[in-house]
Structure formats: structure tokens, C-alpha cells
# Entry
Amino acid sequence: LSHPINTMANLKSFPIDQFLANLAAKQPTPGGGAAAAIGGAIGSAAASMAAAYTQRKKDKETGAAAKAELLIQSMTISPMLQAADDDAAAYADLQRTWKDSDMSAEEKTAIEARALSIPTVLLESCHERICEIRDFLPHCNKNITSDAKVGIHQLAGAARAAYQTVLVNSPPEEEKMRLSKMLKEIRDLEDEILS
# Structure
């Protein structure tokens, strides 16, 4: 691995080996939230690739190519990459709440809410994308459905990883239950495509 760079630079601009070196290093960011977001980006890219291969003449004739185009549009990776950067920034702000005794209660509450919101939105996005891939699978080029399923599994892992980041931010019990329900739906879908 490359040597880590201790910086708050945009993680999305790092080469993958540099991101991994930073993730592996003893430094606060990137951490688990960024790892979850990058995993979601990888899953989205794998699903997009499967859709890109569903553009043959017969796919156009059956309407599968149009469904593939819609999937490609919904799998944009930039929001996932932005979530990695947002998570790192939110954690840096959260660290300030532990050290800044002059910080107002309102600012501290806002920072804590943002730190919880980022992995929550990531989990919701992973769930939504997984459902979109599931709906696309019957239309996918049969020679590449395994890559669409890789997208599902990668996004499922990202969703579970995001949930761990949610938990460390002490969500209300009803929020934990809502997100756990999403994770169960994801798990059930994974079990279905593995059988």
C-alpha cells in the first residue's frame, strides 16, 4: 500500500491504493463510514456495467435496453463518493464537539445530527439501489447477471457497514428499527438471489 496522507482532501480524488492506505492508517479519517460509501460506489458501478452490456439489438427490441438506461442513470457513483467525503468532514466536526468547551448546545446538536444523517442516507440509498437492481435483473443480459448481483451484494455490504456507523451515533430506537427493517429486506433479497 501507499503511504497514508494525513489530509482532509477529497477522498474521491484519491487513487484507490492511496484511499486504502489512508483507511488502513492510524488516523481518524477516512473510517468506516467512508469505507461503506466507497463500497456502495463499487456496487453501483458493477450494476451499471451489467446494464451497459444490456444494449444489444434484441435488448432494444424487448425494451430491456431502456430499462438498462434507467438503471445506469440511477447508479451514479458521485453521490456515494461525496458521502465518503461528507463522512470524513462530519467526523472531524464531531471530534470538535468533544474538545471545544465553548461550543453552543445548538451547534453540538446540529453536528451530531449531521454525523447520524450521513450514514442513514447512505443506507437508504443502498436499499433503494438494491431494489432497482432487483427489478432490472429479469431484463438484464443473461450473460452478465452475475455482475448485477455483485452490485447487489456490494451495496448490501455497504448498507450493513453504514448501519454500524449509524449505531455509533446513537440513533433513536424507532430509527434503529426502521433501518433494521431495510437491512432485513436486503438480506432476504440476497438470500433469494443466492439460491
Observations:
- The chain has a mean pLDDT of 92.
- Helices lie at 16-24, 32-52, 57-62, 64-74, 78-99, 105-136, 145-168, 173-194.
